[in-house]
Write a structure and sequence with these properties.
Elements: E1 13-17, E2 32-43, E3 51-60, E4 81-83, E5 88-92, E6 97-102, E7 107-113, E8 125-127, E9 133-137, E10 140-144
Antiparallel strand pairs: 1-2, 2-3, 4-5, 5-6, 6-7, 8-9, 9-10
């Protein structure tokens, strides 16, 4: 799914990769999602003596967070839908938008607003056998995509 990947791992991991902008913990507020190589490591950029899984791809959230200087809204997800056919990941953000992350271009290539962005915690996204995307926001299940009989 990630054509640019040149490592040896037989699989990669998709994860929210938030870096909370809180003066007490030292984050920069540049909240990301990431594709990680679980068999390779790199130094943690914030705790140099610690190693973390190697970043293969990351993308920063697109919506500014007015409460954090230079920060963006967090990726507050419990699950994302991975679509091998389109080489993409479908995921919700705290900004109330469902995004398509195109792994071949490392861009958020499509989006659709589901809610007004409530700061809702841990929203799931999945796909159904009908090809639709099911995403929860503000305690509502949204169905995105054409449903055919």
């Amino acid at each position: 799914m990630v054509a640019s990947y040149t490592g040896a791992s037989p699989y990669l991991i998709m994860s929210k990769y938030n870096n909370y902008g809180n003066p007490g913990i030292g984050g920069d507020g540049k909240n990301r999602v990431a594709i990680l190589d679980p068999t390779a490591s790199q130094p943690d950029p914030y705790a140099g003596s610690v190693t973390v899984m190697k970043e293969v791809l990351t993308v920063v959230g697109p919506t500014a967070d007015a409460t954090v200087p230079n920060g963006v809204k967090e990726w507050c997800i419990s699950s994302a839908a991975v679509d091998p056919l389109s080489h993409s990941v479908l995921l919700n953000s705290e900004d109330g938008v469902l995004y398509r992350w195109d792994l071949s271009t490392n861009q958020l290539s499509q989006s659709i607003r589901l809610t007004n962005g409530l700061g809702q915690a841990y929203t799931p996204t999945t796909t159904g056998a009908d090809g639709a995307v099911y995403a929860i926001g503000n305690a509502t299940v949204f169905v995105v995509g054409a449903m055919t009989p």
